[in-house]
Amino acid sequence: MSAVTEAKIEPQTVETATVACDGGTGPLGHPRVFLHFGAEREVVCPYCSRTYVLAEGAKAHGH
What we know:
This protein is mainly β. It has one domain (12-59): HSP40/DNAj peptide-binding domain, CATH 2.60.260.40. Helix content is 0%, strand content 29%. The chain contains no helices and five strands. Strands 1-5-4 form a three-stranded mixed β-sheet, with no helix packed on it. The chain has a two-stranded antiparallel ribbon with strand order 2-3. It is elongated. GO terms for molecular function: zinc ion binding. InterPro entries: Znf_CHCC (IPR019401). Pfam families: zf-CHCC. It comes from Magnetospirillum aberrantis SpK.
């Protein structure tokens, strides 16, 4: 019996208040979406669940 493990994608630390995610290259990609940081310093892509973290000292744009 073998256990199936999911590949764990490490959170990406970014310096900008907006980040574009396309899920990577090849068949695992998805349409490019632009993610914006708000009050939270973390945002998750709705397609691939990749997590982006706003770096310390970087400022998010407030609307």
